[in-house]
Amino acid sequence: MTSLSPAQVDRAVGAVLVSAAGDALGSAYEFGPALADDVVPAFGRGHFGHGEREWTDDTSMAVPILDELAAGHRLEDPSSLETIVRRWQEWARDALDVGAQTRQVLSRIPVGGRMNAITAASRAVHDASGRSGGNGSLMRTGPLALGYLERPRAEMAAAAGAVARLTHWEDDNLDACALWCGAVRHGILTGELDMRAQLDLVPAERRDHWADLIEATEGRHPRDFQQANGWIVRAFQGALSAVAGAASPLDAIERAVRGGNDTDTVAAIAGSLAGAVWGAEALPPSHAEGLHGWPGIDGSELARRAREAVGA
């Protein structure tokens, strides 16, 4: 039984539901130009053929993570990580869109592969190019914080890194996911946005670097980080600027979409943090209703699983 207050539970649900809403809203604008502030983004058919109000790979890949937590499993357990990867492989077989880097890693892992095979595949894809800093690890990381609201933050950071490295090996992924999960956790527990307070989750030798990246988002708009926002660092900055300059969860995901380029992913990332700060009930029904996607569930079911993940 959770010791969370009703408001905290609502914010935990928000971290999942607002992310899905941002994902679905941004889908129709993916790879498009930045939009002016007077443009109101609307749900539509996605760039890759996703239906109206259908979430994309960002949320689909987050669902198995959420489900492991809802089942009471620990993400430190290799069997949980193997289950997540197996479900990703099943989804990827006929998914409308799978990130290029993610698809490369998943295709290298044999069906039913154990952790040694998963780790080898992820590392091999990184070693082949020397880079693996796509935003695919950050887009799915928000729900992870729900399993660590009453557990040590250091354990959460380690789990965030382990889940990131299932497909994305580069250190930027570990750092960005740890910081984001820390901010989501802080938002759920306090209702406040504070990314700087999470810097201790990053190795000491990289903290100044991330402090500078965070500072560079102050007073900025996601449009300022549009170029190369498929890179995890730019996606992180774009999503953070979306939330920091917003007055509500809807405002945050709309700002993210107006940023242009990888709109569904930046809006999904922003939505996880905005939902953690303002809660699910702050998202208007116009954007909460009708959400759906893999694995054949809707927004209401997504919210139910989020409540299970926090023991509510």
Automatic annotation (TrEMBL):
Free-text cofactor note: Binds 2 magnesium ions per subunit.
Keyword Repeat in annotation: no
InterPro entries tied to this protein: ADP-ribosylglycohydrolase, Ribosyl_crysJ1, Ribosyl_crysJ1_sf
Names of the cofactor(s): Mg(2+)
Residues annotated to bind Mg(2+): T56, D57, D58, D262, D264, T265
Domain of life: Bacteria
GO MF term (any one): hydrolase activity
Keywords: Hydrolase, Magnesium, Metal-binding
UniProt entry tagged with the keyword Metal-binding: yes
Family statement: Belongs to the ADP-ribosylglycohydrolase family.
Record's protein name: ADP-ribosylglycohydrolase
